[in-house]
Design goal:
Elements: E1 6-14, E2 22-30, E3 34-38, H1 45-51, E4 60-65, E5 68-69, H2 75-81, E6 82-85, H3 96-100, H4 109-118, H5 135-147, E7 153-157, H6 165-180, E8 185-188, H7 192-198, E9 201-206, E10 209-214, H8 216-219, H9 225-230
Parallel strand pairs: 3-8, 3-9, 6-7, 7-8
Antiparallel strand pairs: 1-2, 1-4, 4-5, 9-10
Amino acid sequence: MTSEPSFELVDVVAGPEAGPILKGITIDIPCRGITALAGPSGSGKSTLLRLLNRLDEPLSGSISLNGRPLTEWEPAALRRQVGMVFQKPPVFDGDVLANLQVADANVTDERARHVLDHVGLGADLLERRAGDLSGGEAQRMCVARALLTSPSVLLADEPTAALDHEARRTIEDLGIEVAAGGVPIVWVTHDTDQLRRLADHAMVLIDGEVAAFGHVDELSEHAVAAVRALVGA
């Protein structure tokens, strides 16, 4: 176990039994700053991310968080510690406050306003129908909802892929702010420009295996051309 919080994966195989997507992953993923997961479509980025809060289970191998096997966690408790933001923000019926109450049924109006302010949304949105929010507003609401559980780490599965340029940059800025505030993020992206704007370090998956891990500047000099291309070098 490393001295800093981390996910530890040992010989992790995952995906369909007939054709696993991840093929024996062994790596420590630090819970520090923003770690970008990059790779071609189908390389296993989203599969790996979903393993980290037990939305999926590996076929074999082990995954731990800070030295504690994920299998020892009750899934709902784990997901409060390891929050997740999806490409398409899940919006529930009712107003924004009702959506925040999905994470904390007892959230006070004051705390709800505070967390909305933290993600750059006005308190006046609390009573707005959540289904009427723009894509960027809905994504920020979902980040606020995830933060209500005081997670140790946040997982982000291409959270800006469906957004326009302005909303994309707003979510990126929010991610930087959240990570700087002490909630590290593991962020899946296909966007090399985004990776270079956000990532403190990056992990590159190719064909279900770890091709490289390190600081973006280091990977820009990697011996494998495909790795250099995937980090935008």
